[in-house]
Design a protein that fits this description.
Blueprint (H helix, E strand, L loop, with lengths): L7 E2 L17 E3 L3 H9 L9 E4 L3 E9 L2 E9 L17 E3 L10 H6 L1 E6 L1 E8 L2 E8 L5 E10 L6 E10 L10 E3 L4 H8 L20 E5 L22 E3 L2
Parallel strand pairs: 5-11, 6-11
Antiparallel strand pairs: 1-4, 2-3, 2-8, 4-5, 7-10, 8-9, 9-13, 10-11, 11-12, 13-14
């Protein structure tokens, strides 16, 4: 199955994000054998369309499981709770801290029964180097990452709005030089468990542990990627040596 028409802006609300983007605020989807295999291992034959430098408020693909199996749906990357009065960007709702999922009014219900997954080939992080924030491309050997997500449906407009957020946790020690937080990267077994909304998961679950479950590869990028409107593949071309972080 090839997913089409999912990437792009919803309601023309893209934020012109530049340097200083908080974790996890930018990612990429590059169709490759590793990404397709990861999805097949989860039980879905899906070819995701390439999307470069994806930023909050854009339309992204979320995987959700129900009684009929695993499905890919389009969602706005900036969660709007079902009880919200309006769709806005007053609060940073594109990330959800794992430590507070059970307490947050916006996230506690999705955490119980509306867990999803976002598949990506890499994400981008910035760190301060010689007084300038330098972007880094972060991936693994397979260029296939499964990130824990939550979703909700807001019905206060003319049509329902499906939106989502990516879950973050404390950074693994090897990753701390880049950021104190990192996305919750799931193994295959963790992905299956996370997507099973019939089974409860607590905020102290081992899948939130601040450690690298797989080796990561990091490479500096041109600062042109800091502008979210730069969405051509060359913007992901590395400009320096690759750093390997062990699991």
């Amino acid at each position: 199955m090839e997913l089409q028409g999912c990437w792009g802006l919803l309601w023309q609300t893209l934020i012109p994000l530049t340097v200083g983007v908080p974790m996890c605020g930018r990612f990429n989807v590059i169709d490759n054998p590793g990404l397709r295999q990861m999805l097949q291992d989860l039980g879905i034959d899906l070819q995701l369309p390439t999307a470069v430098n994806v930023a909050p408020t854009e339309n992204i693909t979320v995987l959700r499981r129900d009684a009929h199996g695993l499905h890919a749906t389009c969602a706005r990357w900036w969660l709007t709770p079902s009880w919200a009065k309006a769709v806005d960007q007053k609060y940073s709702m594109f990330n959800a801290r794992s430590e507070t999922l059970a307490k947050s009014p916006a996230f506690r219900h999705p955490f119980k029964s509306q867990r999803g997954l976002v598949a990506m080939s890499s994400f981008i992080e910035w760190r301060l180097e010689e007084g300038v924030k330098q972007p880094w491309l972060i991936t693994n050997e397979q260029q296939a990452l499964a990130v824990a997500a939550l979703w909700d449906v807001w019905e206060g407009g003319e049509q329902p709005l499906l939106s989502c957020t990516l879950v973050t946790t404390a950074a693994a020690p090897h990753f701390e030089p880049w950021h104190k937080r990192m996305p919750v990267l799931l193994t295959r077994e963790e992905s299956v468990r996370w997507l099973d909304n019939s089974q409860p998961i607590g905020t102290n679950d081992t899948l939130f542990r601040g450690e690298l479950k797989m080796p990561l590869r990091l490479q500096p990028l041109s600062r042109a990627v800091s502008n979210a409107r730069n969405k051509d593949l060359p913007v992901l071309q590395g400009i320096g040596d690759v750093i390997e972080l062990p699991a």
